[in-house]
Amino acid sequence: MTKKLVIIDDSSTQLNILKNFFTNNGWEVCAVQSAKIGYEVIFDFAPDLIITDAIMPLMGGFQLVRQIRENQFISKIPVIVYSVLDEANAKFYIKEELSEYFFKKDNNQFELLAMAEKIIEKYPLSKDYKDEILRAGFDNYKVLQDLKIEKDEQNEQIEPQDDEIVSNEEIKEDIEEESEEELIEHNIEDFEEKVKEISNFSLSDEAIFSKLFMNLYDIFDYDMAIVSVYSFDNKEIKSYFDIKNIILSPILKNTILNKYHSKSAVMYKKYSPNLEVATKEEEFLSKIEFDFEYRGEKIADFVCYSRSEHKWDNNEQINLVERILYNFSKARYIQKIIKANKKDNKGRRYIQVKNKFNNLKSTLDAYFTIIQISNYSDISQKLSFQDLDILNLKISESIIECLEKDEQIHKNDEDEYNLIIFAKDKKHAQNRLDYIEKMLSKISHNGAYVNSFIAAASCNIDDNFNIVEAEKNARYLVDDTIHQQSVVIYDV
Fold first, then answer.
1. Cα 161 from chain centroid?
2. Angle 128-130-132 (CA atoms, 0-180°, nearest 5)?
3. Burial of 176 per CB tally in 10 Å (0-12, 13-18, 19+)
4. Which band of pLDDT confidence, cut at 50, 70 and 90, is reported for residue 4?
5. For residues 114 and 248, what is the distance between their CA atoms, to the nearest angstrom?
6. Helix (H) or strand (E) holding 169
7. What is the distance of C-alpha 79 from the center of its chain?
8. Cα(243)–Cα(226) distance, rounded to whole angstroms?
9. How many CB atoms are closer than 10 A to CB 98?
10. Contacts of 475 (CB under 8 A, 6+ apart)
11. Do residues 15 and 9 lie in contact, with contact meaning Cβ atoms separated by under 8 Å?
């Protein structure tokens, strides 16, 4: 069976060199110069392996890896990140248990080929898995791509000859003659792009659904819309209401919550005493409802109400919107599962550290440490993706230089690093963490400077090595204290 490879590099020279090399060695290669395009190509190509450059415009290789790992359909595809950077700088982003590898660009191509061959032998992808990738790609992109291609062909611009200059009046007439179907396609395409923009789920659900309602209203023009979303274990159901030009009575609100077995609600509404109060569902003459399931589990309910009759009568439009909302709900649901499983992964991650510590505990104490980049949100809004990755690498390099043998670090989130360091006592630990904070305060890139807050707690609890309890204590300092100091250690 032919081995399939996606290569992503913004350098056309490097891209062509690698493409020709792997093609000559029996691989089927798809090569692109953009990480964003590369991400979409994965669904259409279903590769056995991905090789991506680390630093690229708009979206870097490390961010691409994060997106791949967050998508259940493609998360098992092994990835090689290659760069001129040193391997130690990439250790926060490269997790071998997730089949990720780093390759330095000054190594030769035959070493890269040998690594690629070894990886796909270690992490083979089944035909069924690849077929599911292709089906997911069809669900997510095919309809939109077909509409876009067809529209691009229809609107292909041809330079007019001197005697074929088109007047503004003629252009206006052509626009007015655009069919209702084409307008629908344009609106749906625009809607899908806007939904994709808010589907990274880094914001709270409240913020995400507020943006979703703003876009959904342009499509359906409802008087009231409700989204009820389910947790991955269906134990918690929460509803979000978007209401236009009416006030929802407490009775009707509770009726709807009971209907969807929801325990709480968020209302997007500024109340006005001049608005009419809706007291029962029968006041709305029409509605459209979507019930979404994923792998046998209920994941979301969407319903839009109108006080007019026959508000939604275009089946093609409804089908397209339903598909978009389903993909959105599925992505959110999968993301919730991933976050819920993070706690289990941490226990396995630190087993090796515990074994090492058992050999040292007679002379040293272990400290679970949280390094939080406290101004990361502000930095991420100022810098491009490429600059943000460079800044992240500077942060990781600075921390690495401060670590001793057998100490461990993990990049827990975009703005947080988790460390386990060894120290003779609390004073020694304080001095070491003060030094790390000092090194971080010197980091800057393109005018962005790093501010950090460091919290640590001893893992020696009642003479037992307890990482879970130590993390809990360190987390308490991060979440529940005023950061008057830059370094704080939990006093057992």
1. 48
2. 70
3. exposed
4. very high
5. 65
6. helix 168-176
7. 17
8. 9
9. 15
10. 370, 455
11. yes
Which residues are CB-neighbours of 116 under 8 A, at least 6 positions away? 5, 22, 27, 49, 51, 80
The closest alpha carbon to 328, from 206, 196, 217, 435, belongs to 196
Find the farthest-apart pair of alpha carbons in the chain and give their distance in angstroms, rounded: 92
Q: Per residue in 40-76, pLDDT tens?
A: 888 878 899 999 988 777 777 888 888 888 888 898 8
Adjacent-strand bridge partners of 453: 372
C-alpha 217/C-alpha 225 separation (Å) is 9
Q: Identify the residue whose tokens are 């386990």.
A: 420
* CA pair distance 296, 362, nearest whole angstrom: 52
Q: Which amino acid is at 446?
A: N
| Per-residue pLDDT tens over the stretch 91-134 | 555 554 345 677 776 668 888 899 999 999 988 898 888 888 87
Interatomic CA distance for residues 102 and 180, integer angstroms: 51
pLDDT band at 492 (very low <50, low <70, confident <90, very high): low
- Tracing tokens 């067809």 back to the chain, one arrives at 150
pLDDT tens digits for range 427-471: 999 999 999 999 999 998 888 899 999 999 988 876 677 888 888
Strand, coil or helix: what is 198? coil
Tokens of 106: 């000054």
Let me know the angle formed at the C-alpha of 376 by 59 and 414, rounded to the nearest 5 degrees.
Answer: 60
Query: What is the rounded distance in angstroms from the CA atom of residue 173 to the CA atom of residue 168?
Result: 9
Q: Residue 145's pLDDT is what? A: 42
Integer Cα distance of 35 and 47 in angstroms: 15
Q: Domains in the chain, ordered, with CATH?
A: 3-132 (3.40.50.2300), 178-337 (3.30.450.40), 350-490 (3.30.70.270)
CA separation for the pair 176, 307 (Å, rounded): 30
User: CB count, 10 Å around CB of 61?
Assistant: 27
* Dihedral sign, Cα of residue 380, residue 382, residue 386, residue 389: negative
Q: In this structure, is the dihedral angle defined by the CA atoms of residues 201, 203, 206 and 209, taken in order, positive or negative? A: negative
Q: Is the distance from CB of 4 to CB of 48 less than 8 angstroms? A: yes
Run of H or E including 289: strand 286-294
Residue 165 CB burial class (10 angstroms; 0-12, 13-18, ≥19)? exposed
Q: Could you give the angle at the alpha carbon of 101 between the alpha carbons of 100 and 103, nearest 5°? A: 155
Phi first, then psi, for residue 468 (nearest 5°) are -60, -45
Specify whether the CB–CB gap between 8 and 33 falls below 8 A.
Answer: yes
The number of C-alpha atoms within 13 Å of 32 and in the hemisphere containing its C-beta is 15
pLDDT computed for residue 400 by the predictor: 84
pTM: 0.41
- Amino acid letter at 377? S
| Per-residue CA distances from 351 to 148, 284, 345, 394 (Å) | 50, 58, 11, 28
